[in-house]
Design brief:
339 residues; alpha/beta; Quinone Oxidoreductase, Chain A, domain 1; Rossmann fold; 2 domains; six-stranded parallel beta sheet; globular; disordered C terminus
Length: 339
């Protein structure tokens, strides 16, 4: 089978790989569409010890079941694999389980390939009429959904003023989810002019350049930091109102930036947000299917063979799209498992 393999820092190579063999309880999925995540870029730069080369990356995927009684079924893949009997999973928070693993980290190869294996319980049926490209967005949108949901729960106030820091897929997704969940004001701080331009097509969402515009102290009730840099933490500390909430999603290196004195004196809540629950994933898939998150004009598609250039273009900062999907475009009745 064809696979896009991370072979070392700033190196992605298209190779022939053996088709993976499903273990007990797993199925083989023929990948149709798979997104490039920020964590894939982190690994591409050689900054993720959890993803050593050579490795097939990619975890935002949808495709067709290629083995077992569900063969031919269109599915979205929840890539987070957890022992279902783990006490943390049984308590309803499987994403925090110490048993958690994700495809694209050893020992589980990722989905930048024609085939991937996954436990059958991790498959969600794709509704009839929904494009598999859109179903592949379920994973990043689930991250956004989870962050916004827990932020609103901790805030406990209706129709908040929301700031999203970062207009990549997770940030833009958070803004779309905030709109769906009834936020009164939704601003996105994004320095890239191309990504700010994408926001012009989204009613109720306003983008601005944080280096040129200052909304002012205490301007927001809820801030979603989808960047996770010292500069965004510093800005969030000032821009959130007393009693407000900051949700930290981004995972750039470093931990500096928060104004601990103001956070303490103004009883500001900071919470981390990691991945999603199965319910968040299902809700994201449903919202995408029903059009609740708009027309998805912020997504671009390239063939798997164009993967190395897609990574290079993202690295060079010449991509305006918030998400690149690599398409393998299989037909549902063609399930060759030849290498």
């Amino acid at each position: 089978m064809r696979a896009l393999v991370y072979t070392g820092p700033n190196q992605m190579v298209l190779r022939e790989q053996p088709v993976p063999v499903p273990a007990a309880g797993e199925v083989l999925v023929r990948v149709s569409d798979v997104g490039i995540c920020g964590s894939d870029m982190h690994a591409y730069h050689g900054h993720d010890d959890r993803r050593p080369p050579p490795l097939v990356l990619g975890h935002e995927a949808a495709g067709f079941v290629a083995s077992g009684p569900r063969e031919g079924e269109r599915v979205a893949i929840n890539p987070l694999v957890v022992d279902p009997d783990c006490p943390v999973a049984l308590a309803g928070r499987p994403h925090l389980s110490p048993t958690r693993a994700i495809i694209s980290m050893p020992p589980r190869p990722g989905a930048f390939a024609e085939y991937v294996t996954i436990p059958e319980r991790n498959l969600l049926p794709v509704p009839e009429g929904m494009r598999l490209r859109d179903a592949a967005l379920s994973e990043p949108v689930a991250v956004s959904w989870h962050a916004m949901r827990i932020g609103l729960e901790r805030l406990g106030a209706p129709r908040p003023r929301v700031l999203v820091q970062g207009g990549g897929a997770i940030g833009l997704g958070a803004a779309l989810v905030a709109r769906h969940m009834g936020a009164e004001i939704i601003d996105v701080a994004e320095p890239h002019p191309g990504r700010r331009a994408l926001l012009e097509a989204e009613p109720g969402i306003t983008g601005f350049d944080p280096s040129a515009n200052d909304p002012g102290e205490s301007a927001y009730d809820l801030i979603i930091d989808a960047v996770g840099a010292a500069a965004t933490r510093q800005a969030a500390s000032r821009l959130v109102r007393p009693g407000g909430v900051i949700v930290h999603v981004g995972l750039l290196p470093g931990h500096e930036g928060y104004d601990i004195r103001r956070i303490t004196l103004q009883e500001i809540t900071i919470t981390g947000s990691y991945c999603y629950t199965p319910a968040d994933f299902a809700a994201a898939l449903d919202a995408l299917d029903k059009g609740h998150l708009g027309k998805l004009g912020w997504v671009s598609t390239r063939p798997l063979d164009g993967g190395p250039k897609a990574f290079a273009d993202l690295d060079a900062g010449v991509v305006s799209s918030a998400k690149i999907i690599l398409s393998l475009a299989p037909a549902p009745d063609c399930f060759s498992t030849e290498n």
